[in-house]
Amino acid sequence: MGVLIIGYVLLALLVITVVAGASSVYLGHKKLLSAADGAALAAADTFSLSQVQGSSSGTAPAAVLNSAAVTGAVQQYLADSRAGERISSLQIDPETGTPDGRTARVVLSGVVHPPIVNFLVPDGIRISAESDARARLTR
Known about the structure:
By secondary structure, the protein is an alpha+beta fold. The chain contains 3 helices and 5 strands. It has one domain (about 1-135). The strands form 2 sheets. A 3-stranded antiparallel sheet has the order 3-4-5. It has helices spanning about 1-45, 65-80, 85; strands at about 50-55, 60-65, 90, 105-110, 125-135. The protein starts with a helix and ends in a 5-residue tail after the last strand. Helix content is about 45%, strand content about 30%.
């Protein structure tokens, strides 16, 4: 009987460890995704106005983004929000920028250190998050 109790206790501890590790990775990803969403919104506000041909009134203003301005806005947002304090090894991926001149794409990566099993993954688990925000002028 004692062997069964010890076995069930070990099994329960194993389940608790797995759930705590998975929860830690999930919450870390949500923090990273939140930072990427905020940075994408801030980057989408860095548009400049350009004229577009083909509208009913001849030319109409349109929002145009620049990759360098998007990356700069992302860096500024992350510094202002102090996201690096909440997310370990926070990095801006080289894919961050604007693929089409109208959408700000932000790709961030970071490292999560799950509790209890740190000795199994001493470098942590690398996670990444991607967010897009579109700059658009409307009436």
